[in-house]
Structure formats: structure tokens, C-alpha cells
Amino acid sequence: MKFTATQIAGILEGEVEGNPETAVHKLSKIEEGESGSLTFLANPKYTPYIYSTKASITIVNRDFIPEQALSTTLIKVEDAYKSFSKLLEYYNQVKNNKVGIESPSFVSESASYGKGFYLGAFSYLGENVKIGDDVKVYPNVYIGDNVTIGDNVQLFAGSKVYSESIIGNGCVIHSGAIIGADGFGFTPNEKGEYSKVPQTGNVILEDNVDVGAGTTIDRATLGSTILRKGVKLDNQIQIAHNVEIGEHTAIAAQTGVAGSTKIGKHCLIGGQVGIVGHITIGDRVRIQAQSGIGRNVKDDEVLQGSPALNYGDYNKSYVHFKNLPKLVNQIHNLEKKIDNKND
Prior knowledge:
This protein is an alpha/beta fold and 343 residues long.
């Protein structure tokens, strides 16, 4: 797939300086640029590389004025970084714009789908599945009975969507993610054996939710596990039954959220955080990596540690913790002085 400088400038509303017919077919870092590649310059510390890069086209800010001769064709835009991101998004749309149903795959007679639909080989659509327009389902995807999927959704290879799940518009489900597995519900009997509690609820993903590779979102015991619009989940996250996550909250990898916990809007949660069940976390909360949350959290709190403390208190305490050996020695020395005086 090749693009000329003129075509790229048209997409980005930019201006070409150099050969408008220069063509590229791949992307590169500016310091590793090769002939036929496109790169960008946004960070001033990388400016020296623009004079040595072999990239055929470089996107730069409009105010960039070269101080030496260039071998690369420039496309000048208002914001090089944002424009390059826009181009990446456009490239992905073009690259992933597959349509049609590949064979072998299974589509139930009662399943329905809209225009621009793609179903990769070895995929499965169950009974009464309803899929909107421009949905891309890559190979080896399982979609269970009575699942509803909105428009412009991507389900990457090997993802699984269990029955009754509801996925909104613009969602992205990455490889190996599992939506709607049973919640971890068991009750012990007098013999110490466990009986399974049926998990009869579902999972709801509202619009523009991203679910990372290997992440699991469990169905509710009753009702729904809900991720509100704009939620972003990294890879390898566990969301337990009946959890609710508020709009535009982002959670980093290897975090686990136990059952029935409610997380507010616009929260940022670092990697490897553990959150107990049946608590409420407010809006705009910040939780540092590897923290353990075992209590309700108010709006706008910033937490760190396990069990987590106020972020400022944690840092002050950590300073003392690092100095504990010195403090212990000082105490011992003082005790010796006191003992010598008493003698």
C-alpha cells in the first residue's frame, strides 16, 4: 500500500516542500528512517536526525526551518505529533477494512449483521446475534447466543464474547480477551466442598470501550457487569462479577478488581493494583502501581502502597522507612549514652 506526499498532505491538510510525487509504503522512527518510509519530527531533541534520515517523507511543524540541506520531502502541518497519530489511525482503517465472510466459519441462521461486515475464518456466530455496521470479526473469534454488538466494533483474533453480552459502538476487543465468563461464585457446604452459584447476569460495554489482550470481564451473578463509555483497559486485567467502571476511567495491566466494586469517572489506575470487593471508589481518583485498595475512596484522592495511603503521606513515610537503619543506630547510641550516664 503506497501513498504519495500529495495524498498524505491532503489527508493531514498540510503543505508539501519537496517532491510531491515521493511515495512511501511503511513507517519508521526518524533516526532509523529508510528509503520508502514515512516519519515525523515533533520533539526538538531529535532535530539533528532530520539531516541524516533516509526516510522519504517527514512530517514537521509549520514553523520548522531547516538549517542544512535535506534529502527528505517535508509535509508541514500545525502539529506534527497529532498529524502522525491521525495518519496512523487512517492507515489502520485502510489496512483493516476487510469485508465478507471467510470459510470455514459458522453463522447461525438467526444471526444478523449490517453493511461492511467482516468475519474471519474459523469464527462462530451463535443464535440471535445482532451485529451493526462496519464490524470486523477476525479469525477464531467466538460470539455466543443473544449477543448484541454495535457499529464500528473490532474483535481481534481469538477473542471470546459469551452469551447475552452487549457491546456498544466503537469498541475494540483485543486478542485473547474474554467478555462474559462466569463470575467466581461458589458456596462451601458442611464438608468443605464448594457448590457453584449460577451466574445469570451479563456484561455491558458502552460506546468506545477498549479491552486489552488477555483481559477477562466476568458476567454478573444477577444484573450486569458494566463498563461505561470511554473506559480503557490494558492487557491482562481481571474485572470480576457485578463491577461497574465509570466513564473514561483507564486501568493499566495486571490490575484485579474484585466483585461488586464501583469505580468512578475519569480515574487512573496503575499496573498490578489490587482492589477488594464491595467498595466504592470516587471520581478522578489516582492509584499508583502495585497499590492495594481495601476501603472506600473519596473523589480526587491519590493513593499509593499496600494497604494504600494518601500519596503525600506515603512519600513522607517512605523517607523515614529508608532511614530506619540510621534511626535504629541513633536510638542505640542514645541508649548507650543514657546507660553510661546512669552508671
